[in-house]
Amino acid sequence: MLATVLGTELLKLRRSTITWLTWLAFSVAPLVGGLFMWILKEPDRARAIGLLGAKAQFAGGSADWPSFGAMLAQMTGVGGMILTAVITAYVFGREYADGTAKNMLSLPVRRELFVAAKLIVVVLWFAALVIAIFVEGVAIGLVLDLPGFSWGLLGRIAGDVAFSAAMCCLLAADAADRRLLRGIRTRHHPRADAIGARGEEGAR
Amino acid sequence: MFDRPVGRGRSNDLKKVGYLVESATAYPNLTVRENLEIQRRLTRSPASAVGHAIGLLRLDQYADRTAGTLSLGNKQRLSLARALLHTPEIVVLDEPANALDPAGIVEVRDLLRTLAHDRGVTVFMSSHILAEVAHLADRIGIIHGGQLLEELDVGEIQARSGGYLDVRVSDPERVRALLVERFPAVRIEAHQGALWVLGTTDLAPEIARLVVQAGFDLRSLTPMAEDLESYFLRLTGGPT
After folding, report:
1. Distance CA A158, CA B103 (A)
2. ipTM computed for the complex
3. Which residues of chain B neighbour A94 with C-beta distances below 8 Å?
């Protein structure tokens, strides 16, 4: 039954613009990382087109794969905290925004299954974003021809990014609201405002 | 429900319940067909159920439009289709005629009547459009201020609201006893100092004669006509 519910939860995302919006927003991360690397690598050219080299230098690091990788992992963590909150708020909150929550309660499906399926959707959605961002980041690194590339290092970067992403997913479970999960156990209805408020809090 | 308590762990019983409460709702980014497909999968209904529900509510030409682009009336049809998709035995509907055009109202009314009479589906319907209720219901409950004031078969409501005589006399209690004795088949109720002779206004001359001959004062005798709406207003204390 969980598979069925998960299937319908994924179907609900069809033609939704917010999936693309989260991808666009997250794609800023490797682009900014790449821009920093480029400024560090070619400060003279950057200054010539009006970009402040000093600030990039101040941000720390040097133009090579290890610091670019660290930047990617860090941005996955920072961006991921916001994005998982947004995604979680959307996946749960839309049922209230669209008014479909009441119909869910009238279905012959246990509420726990909806919550579980929705959390899985959040993780799958975010994982897809992280993979996309990682691939984009590596492509940008290769285009910039940063020094110090090795497959072993790439593996370590992938590990760091995955770890940051996993930490964000734990946050998502929290953003889904401990009150919501407890509410299910105590037979109270999950409260719409509780989910919305927590989601926004996280986003801020 | 179905001779069993409703509560947790009973969600399988919900398979036999169709539900449309408050406004029409749907996932706006999904088509009519996809919205119904979600309901079909979650109620474990056969694959043919979606097409059947689309046909039932005549949504064929909108089947592949996203729900967000539907008119309010068609969204209402979609919600009704979703409530009926899994051939429930109990259907709970709030204002089913909401936002429908006049032809749609008749269509949905016929559909619900067919479900109830031919397939034995129990339809619970709440509405403040009393003409609509009068068209459809077999049994009517009147709720006001959160209280169920009355629950009656529709025939009884008609008997009560088909017209009545408002009789005001000097001694209502004794006159009532007199009238009950004289007209055993007629319902007579005491109502705030007045007597209501329900279901008919034809007895006015006889009652007048009887009251006067028995030596009571007849202060007024008023034939009243009433539809469900004024019946409701009388019961709930008038328009406020």
Report:
1. 62
2. 0.78
3. 27
